[in-house]
Amino acid sequence: MSMSTARHSQWPIGKDAQYLGPHQGTEPIDVTVVMRRRGTHPTPAAWPHKPPCKREEFDAQWGADPADAEKIRGFAQQHGLTETGCELHRRVMHLRGTPQQLQQAFGVQLGSYQMPDGGPIKRGCHGKPTLPSDISSSVVAVLGLDQRPVARPHFRRLAAAAAATSYTPLQVGELYGFPSTADGTGQTVAIVELGGGYTASDFTQYMQSLGITKMPKVDVVSVAGGTSQPGGDADGEVMLDVEVIGALAQGASIAVYFAPNTDQGFYEAISQAAHDSTRNPSVISISWGGPEDSWASTTLAAMESALQDAVTLGVTVTAASGDSGSTDGESDGQQHVDYPSSSAYVLACGGTKLTGSGSKISGEVVWNELAKNEGATGGGVSASFALPSWQASTKVPGGAKGSSGRGVPDVAGNADPETGYQVRVGGQGQVIGGTSAVAPLWAALIARFNQQLGQNVGDVHEALYGIGTKAFHDITKGNNGAFKAASGWDACTGWGSPKGQALLTALSSLKGSSGAG
After folding, report:
1. pTM, to two decimals
2. Most buried residue, 103, 111, 196, 329, by CB count within 10 Å?
């Protein structure tokens, strides 16, 4: 079994688990009740946006209605649940109760589930939480009843020895023409991690090995009980993310939000990063995800509300599109896209195989090493989200049963582990690839743009789709299984890999033509 296959099987998602019987534990459980927002939600305008809503002002305009919170409080008290916290601006109420109390309150059955390959037994929730009719309209989701993992990290190591061709992030940045006039100074890049750990000594030694003396500050943030726990396989994900951003946005600060790999953990990490008024991230990088059809509808709704918050606050969210080709690793013979990259609020990042030297690219094709069992870029058509207006004139293929869905990805970058990134993990130099590398690559580029433009690009989709091929290396060769590369946008690499300075110039021109200051 190759390393990449072995690693993939170490990261099963919840629906792969086997039901063993009713949950027997008596320990209290903490749940997150996600409340609806006041009024409708704004749709980000054409770039440049008006100044985004400030985090301090968000509550009054888009937070939860205090009357909704009071209703939920009364319901919780009726069922003996304890309120452990409430943040109206994030629209969350935290409740604690015994398994019995929670089952009665939300009309669910908690079970024990065996993860595949002899993995740990996890608590799962059978059935959708239900609430009285006078409260149900106030609640988007109840998260935390289910401990089963919702996502896997999208990174790949080669099965054999190190790749024949590999690059430092600095070399990739040079090939992609990252603007030399900016280094991310004044920006904070947030990274969401659902496992693994960060090792400061590895980061310091890695940056020094690249000749970088300006060391970015790295904050480790614990979310919903998650912590940095070095020593496992997911350290490769964490260090890849931090080292790519650290190398390519040397002037930026980095904040790594560690959360449990659960629906509650993933939601809380995005929400807390978006609303973090201490660190004020302008970009969030996410390299974890799972097939769209593996997510509960209420969890998707909660996640979407957190991503909406991010773009309303002027934060760009980049996400890996997956490493298992057009099926996203599913075995049902159908095509699937990966979430959260399939969200219309997310800049979905696909993968290429890159060859070049200095600032000259000699070849770039779709990443597809499926024949060697070493992965391929995710991409395709969403079955959960409609075609956004900014993709309307793009040749997005028809989805399942002829539906018209959001096309994935938007953009791309080097991801093939055979042309992978030189990183340092666990005291050792390694070469790692995957679309996990592309999300932080683009996050670092966006941080440079924000610095140079003097404002956050935020939800940049409409601008990128308007700019089109002139600011991208158009990838026209290769496939990811069901979808083929083509001129212009395609469902393997989106618009392609960035021409960094050209893209900055185009964004600057849009900003100038709008008269924005």
Report:
1. 0.96
2. 196
